[in-house]
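The instructor's notes for this session suggest beginning with a concrete chain rather than abstract definitions. Hand out the sequence below and ask the class to guess, before any prediction is shown, which regions might be ordered.
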Amino acid sequence: MNKASLAMGPLTWALLFCLSLCWGSSFFFMEFVVGTLPTITLVFLRVFVSAISFFLIAYFMNVPLPKSLKTWALMLGLGSYALALPFSLITWSQIHLDSSLVGILTPTVPLVTALLAHFLTEDEKLTKATIIGLTLGIAGASIIIGPSALGSFDVTSIAQFALIAAFSCFALANISFKKMGHVHPVMLNAGMMLGAALWLLPLSLAQSEQWYVPETSMILALAAQIFIGTVLAYIIYLVIIGRAGATNAALVTFLIPIVTILLGTLILGERPAPSAYLGMVVIFIGLMIKDRRIPFLKF
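After discussion, reveal the predicted structure:
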């Protein structure tokens, strides 16, 4: 695919905006379901229903099932640290954090990906621009979390560090996806969701809290998170990658915080601290430098 074909046309920009709404609203919908069921159970339901949805999509698209046991093992394994663990950490964190703060920290994912890729791959080494971007990203995250987090280390601080750990899982998964290029993206998502569900099922059954049927509003919020924030979001993401490449698709990380802040402040009444906005801007600048999106800066 040549460089011209990767240009961001009006339709691709529209898809990118829709993707930011899907992923950004995922944190919003989660505010209505966290605490209603055990965290592991909520995440299990999310990935299990998503797995069924993706397998159905694959069926109607005539995408064949992988025949190699190694491929199945890789997909099921990816489900553990690409979905099960980070989804669980984010869901638990949101019990103690506002949805807007969760969204504000999402731009750290491509920065952590660049750092891990330097050590885990042969062809994605750190450049001067990447190092500067990473440094600013770390500074921005530190501003958001605050120096007091290391001193007090209360449940809010732990939740913030859990978020960083979850986003690091996503970063590691981004690198691992390079080994799965032979698998159709829809089937890859289906296999990973199934793997995540298999990892979480015994943990969910072992939880001491009793299962119960939540209120209708909570069921609708969970359904929205599954079908809008997970299934539809991943489909749009794959379309954007096909049209404009992974680098342009990563622009969604600039839009997700804006969506979460708007939904959180206008509907949920959240009020992020000024330091959260400052940290977000610092992370944005670092991400732009890392991707060389500031024309007058040459590295």
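Then share the key points. The radius of gyration is 19 Å. Residues 13-290 form one domain.
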